[in-house]
Amino acid sequence: MSDRIEGVKKLFTSKSARVETNKGDAYYDKLFQTCQARIEELKTQQPINNRLDIGDVLETQGIERRDFLKWASAVTGMLMLPASFTPLVADAALMMNRAPVIWLELQDCAGNSEALLRSDGPKIDEIVLDIISLEFHETLQAASGHQAEKQLEEAIEHFKDKYLLFVEGSVPLGMNGQFGTIGASGETMHDHLVRVAKHSAAVVAVGSCATFGGVPAAAPNPTGAVGVMDVIKGKPLINIPACPANPANMVGVIIHYILTGQVPELDSLLRPKFAFGYRIHDNCERRAHFDAGEYVEEWGDEGAKNNFCLYKMGCKGPMTFNNCSIVRYNEGVNWPIGVGRGCIGCSEPDFWDKYAYERPMADAKIKAPTGGVEKTVDEFGLGLLTAAGIGIGIHAAASAFAGKKEDGGEA
Amino acid sequence: MITKQLLEHIEGEASVYFDIKDDKVDFATITFPHFRGMESILKGKNALDALVITPRVCGICGHAHLMAAVRAIEDAYKNAGFEIKLTQKAQKIREFTLIMEMIQNHFKWLYMVIIPELVKLISIKLEKTPLKGAYAASLSAKAIAVFGGQWPHSSYMIPGGVTSDPTFIEIMQARSQLEELIKFFEKETLGISLDKFLTLESCKDFNGFSSDLTNLEKGLIETGMHTKGFAKDQFIVLGEHGFTNSSKLKGTRTFGINSKYVSDTDAYSPQEITYAKNALYKNEYYEAGPLGRMLSQSVPLIKNMHRRYKDSAYSRVMARVFEIGYLLEYSKILLDNFDIDEDSVVTVTDIKQISATGIGVVEAPRGPLLHKIELKNGMISQYHITTPTQFNIGSSTPQTPTPVQQAMQGLAKKDALFIFRTFDVCSVCTTH
After folding, report:
1. Which residues bind Ni(2+) (chain B) (predicted)?
2. Mean pLDDT across the stretch B13-33?
3. Which helix (H) or strand (E) holds B253?
4. Looking at the 3D structure of chain B, how many domains does it have?
5. Closest by alpha carbon to B251, among B298, B188, B189, B199?
């Protein structure tokens, strides 16, 4: 038993399962000074195109400064910065009208734009729609047709090398890009993206389509869809996967950029560590049931009614890196696991083919992020376990035991 | 001469090619230049994978896709001899969330598309307030999230019911969001109470008060939209729900309907590649969406409106706004009649036992959405999707115009562009 306990300890203290949240005083002191200097410099600049001032908006909306600071402190926490950064984050939010953003929709379903409209925080809709300088967005802007094209050209010219380029949707390369064309000239999405990205300060790929190709890239990938990072080279690139991407993470990236002038720390798939540094499983509300070996075995069973762990129903939480278990969706109302459906792993590459929901992870023969191949839950033996496997093996065994005990109890 | 007009300010992108004669639209063809190949992606996958893949067809009505997919699978179960009987509770949860998706769409269309586009054409004061649309839509989305997990792209429906098992707390949460939404609709859009609004019987009744709605109404009259934008004056409602009657309408007369007569053809697009297909019922074009739905329910106000202004752009816009109120009232009744002691999901046979075809039909915000599935041992061998915009915004020849083509004919280009948007275009769904 003691080696099992050691195994569990090892699993949940291993590097893969957590992100470095404390980098030491020297690091933060230096960062603080850098941010402070940047904010001071931004303060001397004029807002772009007479954008609204967030201070005024908050006042007219009757939002108290205390509520605004509460929001800022939540964002500071999300960005994994010490609490002392809260006033700076609040200042950065006030400077949001100094950061031009161009948003392109490629091979998409508009789901990330929709999610953006429902972003988090007190009246953050205002922040996103009115305060950040969204210089171009096909669906949200008023201009259309040729005026819209003109607006894009002007934005590129005017904010040369300064704008953040948000991209939603994948890039179809099949049939010479003819599966997606834009504008009067019939420019392909690929050429359009390359052209607009050329003078951006950084590119932010939003949603699983833009990051890893998403649904369109699922087998047999009829249109030859790829993610933005397969096309754009030589630019700072940030991936915010998930389907849809969580708007909190989009706002987080913008604020981080305003605050530091840099892209946040990224993992090997270019995802910001503040959001993708840990697994769904690490902070799941049903985690206690996993630890207790209590699983939903069948839709609608007693386990389902009691919110037991969904691992055996195909939940991909243990191998999916994302912060939805903390941030949730739709202003924190809920998330998939909250309605008993489990995680489909939508922020991992190729999840449509590898992670498909209905296959329990154990049958999917996927490589765990920690190495090794998953087998069925009950097949696990301690000897060949991967770090992730140890816990699961133990709990599957515990579950079988608990089942027996329960049967006995009822008899 | 044929000129091309790009239309961004819709969901996705479309182009309209106008053939203008004497400053009027002689004919217009429509192209949707995007494609993803969702149907071939579904082929060869487990049937239940359709429940996570098809909601991603559309970021605006993904929930309707989920419901069409689950209904198609359940129909295949039935055709294979394993009929599934849903509990009342599961049905009500599905309907409530579907209605909330419709409402969020209508609010956004009203405040982010129709009012800003109308403002460009009128002299009377009508304020552009897109944030109102965003606010109301986010309230509806929150109500969906209570039962569905998140919006867009939820996957909580499964053959046999839903995975969520709400307690009184969730019901209360949804109810409070609904109440806030009704309050918002009364205060910001209507200017009168919802109850009173639903008792209005004639367009003349709009004269008695002042609000976004009445300003919109005045704007539509000022631009002559009550005399423009006539389409086919025939409608279809296919989805079976408690809040609508599935029927075929010629004017206000209703007839029976069967979704097996829906077919599609390639769109006519001489100038550019388009990936859209036109949808037809018994080889004819029909208009789909709220105007037909409200007529099928014999709503007095809408019937009177139709008597005065037929299927003009005016009626099309006002019916969609009216439907918000109608659906809000209906969802209140749904929430009040929840029996939480019922099961959320019933046990079903393993999908591997199922080799059959099935069809799932729902009313999405813009009209009927059809998913046809063919299963072999639980694996998808064929999948076919028909969306509402394919009915409304098909692109056909001058001899057989589609509803939108007919509605734009003979008008100035600026009017035609507004009328195009009254159909609430969705390009991402259309091309899938």
Report:
1. 58, 61, 426
2. 92
3. strand B253-255
4. 1
5. B298
Q: Taking 90 as the threshold, does the pLDDT of residue B165 lie above it?
A: yes
Do A235 and A368 form a contact (C-beta atoms < 8 A)?
A: no
Structure tokens at B209: 């008060």
Q: Between A406 and B342, whose confidence is greater? A: B342
Cβ pair A356:B56 closer than 8 A: no
Instruction: Flag whether B339 is in a domain.
Output: yes
Has B429 been labeled as part of a binding site?
A: yes
CA dist A343 and A315 (Å) reads: 5
Superfamily of domain A22-260: NADH:ubiquinone oxidoreductase-like, 20kDa subunit (3.40.50.700)
Decide if B9 and A182 are in contact by the 8 Å CB cutoff.
Answer: no
The mean per-residue pLDDT over the stretch B358-363 comes to 98
Q: Using one digit for the tens of pLDDT, what is the confidence trace for B287-344?
A: 999 999 999 999 999 999 999 999 999 999 999 999 999 999 999 999 999 899 999 9
Tell me whether A325 touches chain B (CB under 8 Å). Answer: no
- What are B244-298's pLDDT values in tens digits? 999 999 999 999 999 999 999 999 999 889 999 999 999 999 999 999 999 999 9
- Residue B245: CB atoms within 10 A of its CB come to 15
> Are B134 and B112 a contacting pair, CB within 8 Å?
yes
Helix (H, G, I), strand (E, B) or coil at B138: helix
pTM listed for this prediction: 0.90
Crossing angle (nearest 10°) for helices B313-336 and B413-422: 20
Evaluate whether residue B428 is within a structural domain: no
Distance from CA of A106 to the nearest CA of B (A): 9
Q: Bridge partners of B432?
A: none
Contacts of B91 (CB under 8 A, 6+ apart): none
**Nearest Cβ partner of B8 from A138, A172, A330?**
A138
> Where does residue A410 rank: exposed (0-12), middle (13-18), buried (19+ CB within 10 A)?
exposed
Q: Regarding the domain with residue range A278-366, which homologous superfamily does it belong to in the CATH classification?
A: Cytochrome-c3 hydrogenase, C-terminal domain (4.10.480.10)
Give per-residue pLDDT as tens, A167-188: 999 999 999 999 998 877 889 9
Contact B209, B265 (CB under 8 A): no
Ranking A181-185, A379-383, B14-18, B140-144 by mean pLDDT, the lowest is A379-383
What range defines the domain where residue B184 resides?
2-423
Residue B429 within a domain: no
- Quick one: pLDDT band at residue A130, thresholds 50, 70, 90? low
Q: How far is the alpha carbon of B400 from chain A, nearest alpha carbon, in Å?
A: 27
Structure tokens at B98: 């579907």
The single-letter code of the amino acid at A145 is G
Whether residue B426 is annotated as binding a ligand: the answer is: yes
Shortest CB distance from A182 goes to which of B13, B116, B145? Answer: B13
Within a domain: B432: no
Optimal mutation site among B30, B32, B36, interface A, most CBs of chain A within 10 A: B36
In the chain, the amino acid numbered A358 is E
Name the residue facing B37 among A223, A304, A341 (closest C-beta).
A223
User: Is the minimum CB–CB distance between B347 and chain A shorter than 8 Å?
Assistant: yes
Distances (CA, A) of A179 to A74, A110, A172, A353, A401: 42, 17, 6, 22, 54
Closest Cα of chain B to A242: distance in Å?
Answer: 11
Cβ pair A331:B275 closer than 8 A: no
**What CATH number should be reported for the domain holding residue B361?**
1.10.645.10
Bridge partners, residue A181, by sequence: A188
Distance of residue A50 Cα from the nearest chain B Cα, in angstroms: 18
Please state the residue numbers annotated as binding site of A. 109, 209, 243, 281, 284, 309, 315, 324, 343, 346
Query: Which of B 160-199 lie inside 8 A of A, CB atoms?
Result: 160-165, 173
Cβ atoms < 10 Å from Cβ of B379: 17
Alpha-carbon gap: A293 to the closest alpha carbon of chain B (Å): 20
